């Protein structure tokens, strides 16, 4: 802790808000409980601008992808993406060589999948908006290895996102809760063996996300392709492009604006459902879903501990806040089981 006091709100309470104040009085911590009348309201995000669709995880022949950087970038440009991060394993695929593909509607952001391991665990951390290659690091423990790679990316002012925790069942909420200086976690990855949904006693990526949020970590959920296979058949057993993306709210299509919006949670993740507006008022969260053909939509509003607060088939989907539920996020499913996930809107009081 760098500050001398911290207010920690317990996530579950009704009516009266109970808070525990840790007075970390410059080295002499003491704890006391106080109670006060609650008036919970949403902590309204300060966002503006436009939606920009992008994928932050894709491979080329510079690592284990099957297509050249040129082909991969062209694929995303041709499929309506506004930005792409090429993230080869421990290789810096420099978008400067692809500058002829960049225009006012399409941006390439330099990146890398910093690829390490600890014992049997795979530790893959994407670095976005990097200046050059980042060497993968190993450390004495699994948590320290994840942290070392996050730190390596931060040291060059890149933005880390932690990839596919359930790949080889490598790590979960317990480890991620101990990592610092990370804001982005893959909650959906299009690769066929990343076990997004968990099972057999292991939590899904979405459940891991809720555990982290409930524990007080500010972390935002992203969906990515992790695309490797652009040639041949598109099949669920191959890692093809076009499956998972983010739609980022930013003032301009430039790397700095996009990175700031991602790290502030000003985006939603999707596997096929498009949102046109996410409106947050002091006590109202309202989602406007883009109507695709005759598809139907079911929206689930979720609070701390993964509690389902409301399910609705309405569009717009509207949630009214009446008590402190820690945070509220939404998952929209269409009648083909494509999804969109909004980021948590945290609750404050006034
Ligand atoms: Zn990976
Ligand atoms: Zn990958």
Summarize the SSE layout with pairings.
Elements: E1 6-9, E2 16-25, E3 28-37, E4 40-42, E5 50-55, H1 69-78, E6 83-86, E7 107-118, E8 121-128, H2 142-155, E9 159-162, H3 173-176, E10 184-189, H4 205-214, E11 220-224, E12 245-250, H5 255-264, E13 267-270, E14 275-281, E15 284-289, E16 297-302, E17 308-312, E18 317-320, E19 327-334, E20 339-342, E21 345-349
Parallel strand pairs: 5-6, 6-7, 9-10, 10-11
Antiparallel strand pairs: 1-2, 2-3, 4-21, 5-12, 7-8, 8-9, 12-13, 13-20, 14-15, 15-18, 16-17, 16-19, 19-20, 19-21
One zinc ion is lined by residues 57, 59, 113, 226.
Describe the structure.
A hairpin with a 6-residue loop joins strand 1 (6-9) and strand 2 (16-25). By secondary structure, the chain is mainly beta. The relative contact order is 0.14. It has helices at 69-78, 142-155, 173-176, 205-214, 255-264; strands at 6-9, 16-25, 28-37, 40-42, 50-55, 83-86, 107-118, 121-128, 159-162, 184-189, 220-224, 245-250, 267-270, 275-281, 284-289, 297-302, 308-312, 317-320, 327-334, 339-342, 345-349. The protein starts with 5 loop residues before the first strand and ends with a strand. It has 2 domains: 6-38, no CATH class; 50-278 and 336-345, TIM Barrel, CATH 3.20.20. It has 5 helices and 21 strands. The strands form 3 sheets. The chain has a 15-stranded mixed beta sheet that branches. Helices cover 14% and strands 36% of the residues. Residues 113, 124, 163-164 line the site of one zinc ion (ZN).
